[in-house]
Amino acid sequence: MIVGILGCGAIASIILNNFLSKDSGIDIKYFYDHDMEKAENLATISDGIAVLDIDDMIDNVDLVLEAASPISVEKFGLKVLKKGKNIIIMSIGALMDNKFRDRMIEAATNNDAKIFAPSGAIVGLDGIKAASIGKINRATLTTRKPPRSLGKLVDEEEILYEGKASEAVKMFPVNINVAAALSIACNLDVDVKIIVDPKVDKNVHEVIVEGDFGQFKTRTENLPCEVNPKTSMLAAYSAIKLLKSLNENFIMGT
Ligand SMILES: NC(=O)C1=CN([C@@H]2O[C@H](COP(=O)(O)OP(=O)(O)OC[C@H]3O[C@@H](n4cnc5c(N)ncnc54)[C@H](O)[C@@H]3O)[C@@H](O)[C@H]2O)C=CC1
Ligand SMILES: O=C([O-])CC(=O)C(=O)O
Question: Which SUPFAM superfamilies match (predicted)?
């Protein structure tokens, strides 16, 4: 499988490192970033190809892995799918807009392509997928991040946001994609609280879901990526695992 990466930052670097010199059947070959130097850096490490024009990447790959921004999904997502190529989307916040999500799904359906949205930095999506067979009544997300992850300077914990996921992804587009993942999986606009807390050094996500199945609560204490503390290591790992699973014959979990 030939893969192209859209967005050559923290997540892309971790993914690439995991696939270097391993015979996985997955060839991460093309790199695109609006900062060409970043694309060139990753291309150099992996003996790949940095492209100036994203079409030169899309035309030559089986799958595009987006790790850039919600805006990049809006800009290039339909183009990828209309060319019949699969896409893995990290910036899931872009898919909170129901109309855009429907257009993406329609493009995928009409062009025999697939959209993959990894579980990212939260745990519990496996359970939510199973739970969604029944009715899900309520879901909440409380995200607690250190000041450097949220670009804030505070001495005491502070609630930065309390409200629905649909607004949260607009106000914090590169910090709360997990709220979109949760909402889409639950088919609810979930209640979100974002707290900046100088007492924590991890990105902590607590999820509570209630429905016909009963109730569960998950808590993830994520180590932030060194180069981009907004982003948790687990998010990059989830994309790596998803990519690998596309070539596997045994699928574990929902
Ligand atoms: N689903 C999840 O659980 C998570 C999702 N994310 C999201 O994944 C994305 C990537 O995260 P990181 O690698 O940490 O970000 P990063 O900031 O380290 O890297 C993003 C790269 O994409 C490039 N880029 C941004 N917009 C672009 C555009 N419109 N066209 C071309 N290149 C563009 C930037 O120049 C940068 O090199 C972000 O949107 C982030 O919010 C991050 C963590 C968890
Ligand atoms: O990586 C994380 O902890 C969560 C995050 O940034 C996001 O959901 O956008």
Answer: Glyceraldehyde-3-phosphate dehydrogenase-like, C-terminal domain, NAD(P)-binding Rossmann-fold domains
